[in-house]
Amino acid sequence: MRQTALRQRHSVKQERASRQTQKRQRKAQQQAASESAQTRAVEELDMGRREYVPSLSVVFRLLALMRVCGALLAPLQDCDEVYNYWEPLHFVQFGTGKQTWEYAPQYALRSYAYLRVHDAVIWAMHFVFGFAGKAQAFYALRVGL
After folding, report:
1. Do 142 and 72 touch, CB atoms closer than 8 A?
2. Would you say 72 and 138 are in contact if contact means Cβ atoms under 8 Å apart?
């Protein structure tokens, strides 16, 4: 009787141990399944994403837009920019305006050749785009430079 009682206790302990082992195995399987499901979900999301690489046309358009905005919105930064280049260029184009002493014939420190290049750009834009006003010519040159 004693042996049967010992055997019963031993079998009960074995059953408990096997149940605990089964619980651990089920728990590990559930964790593995949830981790693999999460991994699969992340992989599916990653597969749906592609790295965006803009075409050369898009890049060119964005750079052109930035250039036009900068030319139209940026103020003139320096008085020398106005009196050494814009005013003499206006004088060359329209025959009126201020002629600075550097460009005056008696001193001739600066040449009109540099301004003639800009004048040619403005006239080319005038014929291509039909700019008629002075302000349009001014901003066209700023965009073109």
Report:
1. yes
2. no
Tokens of 131: 């700019």
CA nearest to 93, candidates 55, 61, 64, 133? 133
Q: Are 92 and 116 in contact (CB under 8 A)?
A: yes
Q: What is the dihedral of CA 53, 58, 59, 65, to 10 degrees?
A: -150
49-107 pLDDT per residue, tens = 778 889 999 999 999 999 999 999 998 888 887 788 888 898 888 888 888 888 888 98
Can you give the length of the chain in residues? 145
Rounded distance, CA 81 to CA 143, Å? 16
What is the DSSP code (8-state) at residue 102? T
% of the chain surpassing 90 pLDDT: 18
Cβ atoms of residues 10 and 2 within 8 Å: no
- Global pTM reads 0.56
Rg over alpha carbons for the chain, rounded to the nearest Å, is 41
> Cα 30 from chain centroid?
45
